[in-house]
Amino acid sequence: QVQLVESGGGLVQPGGSLRLSCAVSGSIVSIAVMGWYRQAPGKQRELVAAIIPGGSTNYADSVKGRFTISRDNAKNTVYLQMNSLKPEDTAVYYCKMNLNWWGQGTQVTVSS
Fold first, then answer.
1. What is the arithmetic mean of pLDDT over 3-32?
2. Under a CB-based contact definition with an 8 Å cutoff, are residues 73 and 30 in contact?
3. What per-residue confidence (pLDDT) applies to 3?
4. Strands 34-39, 106-110: parallel, antiparallel or unpaired by DSSP?
5. DSSP-assigned letters across all residues of the chain
6. Long-range contacts formed by 64-69: CB under 8 A, 24+ apart
7. pLDDT of residue 53
C-alpha cells in the first residue's frame, strides 16, 4: 500500500520560509512523477510544482523563483522549499505521486 505523509506546514509571516516534506512508503520516488498541489478555501486545487524521474522540474508561474521542489532518493522523500512567502500562498498543500496517490495535506498560513 502506497502512503504519502506530508509535514512542515505552519504559520509564517509574509517574506518568511517553510520547507514541506512528503515521505513516501510502498513505492519509490525516484521513478515516479511527484507533485505538490495546493488548495485555498473556495478555490480549485492547483499544481504548484512537479519533478519527474529524470529530474526535470516544473512550476506554476505564481511560485517561480520562490519555490523549489527536490527529492532525496535515499530517504524516499520529496520536498518543497518555499521562500518569500506571500499571503496568497495560504492553502492546504498536498503531495501527489503519479496519477493516483495523494497525501493528507498540510496547512500553510502566511499572515502577519
1. 96
2. yes
3. 96
4. unpaired
5. --EEEEE--EEE-TT--EEEEEEEESS-GGGS-EEEEEE-TTS--EEEEEE-TT--EEE-TTTTTTEEEEEETTTTEEEEEE-S--GGG-EEEEEEETTTEE---EEEEE--
6. 69/34, 69/36
7. 94
The predicted-structure confidence for 19-30, as pLDDT tens digits, reads as follows 999 999 999 999
Report yes or no: 96 and 102 within 8 Å, Cβ to Cβ: yes
Q: Among all chains, which residue has been given the C-alpha cell 527536490?
A: 70
C-alpha angle with apex 7: 77 to 108, nearest 5 degrees? 125
Neighbours of 74 (CB within 10 A): 7
Rounded to an integer, what distance in angstroms lies between the CA atom of residue 27 and that of residue 18?
26
Report d(CA 32, CA 10) in Å as an integer: 27
